Q: What sequence folds into this?
């Protein structure tokens, strides 16, 4: 069977215990070589194994800095990124702790951080969420979204079927020694099952996505005290934004971008780092609603 792995994609691998999931991921990562066939075109890759070898003669920061240099970063940059990822996972206080003395949860944070600090084009995660606390799991969810938004590919195995539910671009199942494919949902088709969603209201410079080009239909008024809008649907440029947001555009040029919460940080970064940057008017998080009395008048 031929398997082509696209860029900017999230691929889920499933299968029963002992079916060969970890073996497949080791092939993806280049840890193992196939006995028949070949793998070509592998980009810069990072891998989180199912079992992290914690008994290594490093501190947490020393290990991450060393792995950063293995990935091609200079020493100061590797140390800077290592420090940032430890802080992001809430493990900054363990920077000087020997790996062998870390708790299982903190060891897993280090295992994940070493794969993320080099910004790989292919990120391979084998049960990477196991052992992480809820806050760290959310950090990893967002890091996955960031890798995809930056054009990378993420391949993952996880025992929890709810992990990144509805966001995978393709699903693969290993059964009876064969790799089977099934149609997976795309981020654009994600529903409420994919988790909470965030609404970002933003205004960009003239001609910027997603409101560049003529409207497909004339503006319509949706309700009293709500701004006139163009219908939600295929909007020029929207498909290129992280999370493939649903977009509604007002006549004043304000866009409401609705995206799964896991992609919200990556989307905000894309808007704010664009040249010229977009102006963010509001960010509406799950469970909150804008005050209708503060809604802009037509």
A:
């Amino acid at each position: 069977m031929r398997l082509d792995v696209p860029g900017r994609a999230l691929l889920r691998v499933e299968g029963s215990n002992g079916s060969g999931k970890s073996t497949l991921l080791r092939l993806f990562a280049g840890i193992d070589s196939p006995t028949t066939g070949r793998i070509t075109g592998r980009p810069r890759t990072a891998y989180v194994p199912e079992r992290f070898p914690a008994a290594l003669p490093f501190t947490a920061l020393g290990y991450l800095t060393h792995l950063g240099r293995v990935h091609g970063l200079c020493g100061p940059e590797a140390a800077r990124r290592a420090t940032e990822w430890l802080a992001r996972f809430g493990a900054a206080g363990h920077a000087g702790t020997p790996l062998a003395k870390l708790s299982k949860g903190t060891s897993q944070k280090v295992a994940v951080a070493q794969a993320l600090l080099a910004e790989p084009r292919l990120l391979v995660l084998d049960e990477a969420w196991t052992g992480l606390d809820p806050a760290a799991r959310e950090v990893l969810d967002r890091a996955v979204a960031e890798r995809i938004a930056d054009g990378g590919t993420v391949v993952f195995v996880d025992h929890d079927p709810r992990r990144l539910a509805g966001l995978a671009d393709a699903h693969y199942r290993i059964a009876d020694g064969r790799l089977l494919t099934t149609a997976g949902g795309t981020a654009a088709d994600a529903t409420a099952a994919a988790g909470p969603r965030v609404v970002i209201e933003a205004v960009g410079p003239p001609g910027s996505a997603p409101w560049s080009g003529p409207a497909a239909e004339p503006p319509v008024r949706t309700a009293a005290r709500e701004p006139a809008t163009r219908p939600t649907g295929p909007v020029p440029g929207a498909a290129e934004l992280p999370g493939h947001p649903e977009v509604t555009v007002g006549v004043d040029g304000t866009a409401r971008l609705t995206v799964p919460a896991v992609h919200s940080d990556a989307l905000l970064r894309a808007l704010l780092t664009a040249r010229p940057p977009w102006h963010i008017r509001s960010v509406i998080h799950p469970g909150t609603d804008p005050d209708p009395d503060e809604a802009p008048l037509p």
